[in-house]
Amino acid sequence: MSEPTRLLPDSHPICIVTGASAGIGRETARGMAERGYSVVLIGRDAARTESAADYVRAHARGTTAVAKLCDFSSLAAVRGLAAELLAGLPRIDVLINNAGLWHPRRVLSRDGIEDTLAVNHLAPFLLTNLLLPRLRSLPEARVVVVSSRLHEKRTRLDLDDLQSTKKYQGLSVYTQSKLCNALFSRELAERLRGSSVTSNALHPGDVVSDILRERPLLRFFGRLANAFVDTPTTAARTSIHVATSPELRGVSGAYFKKEKPAQSSPLCEDRAVRERLWQISAELVGIDGGAVQ
Known about the structure:
8 strands; globular; 41% helix; Rossmann fold
């Protein structure tokens, strides 16, 4: 039986960045490459993701960057991606869960799940769990979850209607998915306590990005306000900081904004809410909902 094809060599630490075909994700991948990481850029569109990998290679000469495709609206695609990464990567030092979207109207994923929840929360939840054995094989590894400051004031999560069947409002559902990101990151940190893997969440900054691709009017007014918001380059700094800072070695379960610790939603302190969200998420993606081993 032949050896699996290696996507990257093990001569450098390896970072995976999801949602890396443009915007914050692309700049995050560039920043990680400039810091000596080999990078796997995950995107949905082949041309854009390969172009982003070319961009990273051009700006961080001597590094290795590869593009991989995955539609996070499909759990089967996420499982396929994880299998390919586990077969092709000798190590995984950092996983940055950056991919996200915002639908103005309720849309179902390929699995019949509300798509904002599926892409923004369930896909990274599943991918992270599937890649954990490789992350845990190293003396130190980091999981970075890109949330949003929008979740910080949220004090309620309707665990009986996570898929927003009763009422759908695009921004509110997006905010809820970002709250799920923060809750997941914190619960993962608790379940990994004492291990070699840390888990932290962050707000990347306020930037007009591809996440508004279905709201052209908002994108238009956002561009007019560009002087008052972050660029993708500056917005990527907190992700890079959380992924690489020596000061954060061993720090887990925290939330960051502008490269500094910040206060996440009070719900992140509610163990019962975190555990129930984990159990529901595990059932929806079809994995064991027990403690991380």
